[in-house]
Amino acid sequence: MFRIPEGKSLKARRTGDASNGSGIFLTFDDGPDPIWTPRVLEALRLADATATFFVIAPLAVRFPRLISELRSAGHAIGLHCARHVRHTDMTRQEVEADVGSSLRNLERLGITPRLWRPPWGILAPWTAAVAEDFGLTLVPWTADTHDWRGDNAQTMLEVISPTLGPDAIVLMHDGLGPGARRVGCEETVRLAGPLVERARSLGCEPAAMNADTVTALPAPKAAS
Ligand SMILES: [Zn+2]
């Protein structure tokens, strides 16, 4: 897992209008999904908020219209993976091939991701070097909703609220990845609006990430 040293600020630079106060970054992994991504998009539209989606490249190829919708709504698109496998269970060469094919496929859709969140956020000792080789910035999270477990939206909001604040990066899912203990992303859809409201009550405006947003992040530590 990415481990953020305790007490160490992320110092993420925000991308929104400086007059709006601090930024907060909502992120969604494991999509695009033909059922859940549109519902998450609608929830974000109603909340007038933008977010960042770390996509699974073969799904992006399969559902290019969803990628267009993400882009036209002002959301950022980062890379998750092609195969959803822990880097610690792959060779460096396998991961390089995975990233290379993903970037080529996304390029055909007109996307050149600069942000990367590998499966489960698990890094091998060489993941950071691979990221650098491909010009990708690794993106951790600081607030985990654990939405894949199937908790309800109210519970998730209460659990993560203490970790919300300026430059927080909130992890959610708009698709059902391997290991998901739920049958759909309904509670993530239900969480989006109240989460945006809670963030704003803390003076934080949700913003889509770009590579500059995370250049000041502490280097994620590799899994041992
Ligand atoms: Zn994932």
Question: Could you give the topology of this structure?
Answer:
Elements: E1 22-29, H1 36-47, E2 52-56, H2 57-62, H3 64-72, E3 76-81, H4 92-108, E4 115-116, H5 127-133, E5 137-138, E6 143-144, H6 153-160, E7 169-173, H7 186-201, E8 204-206
Parallel strand pairs: 1-2, 1-7, 1-8, 2-3, 4-5, 6-7
Main attributes?
TIM Barrel; 6-stranded parallel β-sheet; alpha/beta; two-stranded parallel sheet; binds zinc ion; single chain; 224 residues; 8 strands
Structure description:
The chain has 224 residues and is α/β, with parallel strands linked by helices. The protein has helices at 36-47, 57-62, 64-72, 92-108, 127-133, 153-160, 186-201, and strands spanning 22-29, 52-56, 76-81, 115-116, 137-138, 143-144, 169-173, 204-206. Strands 1, 2, 3, 6, 7 and 8 form a 6-stranded parallel beta sheet that branches. The chain has a two-stranded parallel ribbon with strand order 4-5. Strand 6 (143-144), helix 6 (153-160) and strand 7 (169-173) form a beta-alpha-beta unit. The longest helix is centred in the middle third of the chain and has 17 residues, at 92-108. The radius of gyration is 16 Å and the shape is globular. The termini are close together. The structure holds zinc ion (ZN). Residues 29-30, 80, 84, 119, 177 line the site of zinc ion.
What is the CATH class? Answer: Alpha Beta
The number of distinct β-strands equals 8
* Beta-strand percentage range: 5-15%
Computed structural class: alpha/beta
Name the overall outline. Answer: globular
> Which consecutive residue ranges, at least 5 long each, have pLDDT under 50?
1-20
Number of domains: 1
The residue fraction in helices comes out at 25-40%
CATH topology: TIM Barrel
- CATH homologous superfamily descriptor: Glycoside hydrolase/deacetylase
Query: Biggest sheet: strands, sense, closure?
Result: 6 strands, parallel
Q: How large, in whole angstroms, is the Cα Rg?
A: 16 Å
Q: If you average the pLDDT, what whole number results? A: 88
CATH architecture: Alpha-Beta Barrel
Q: What small molecules does the structure contain?
A: zinc ion
Q: DSSP helix count?
A: 7
Q: Encode the helix/strand succession as letters.
A: EHEHHEHEHEEHEHE
* CA-CA gap between termini: 10 Å
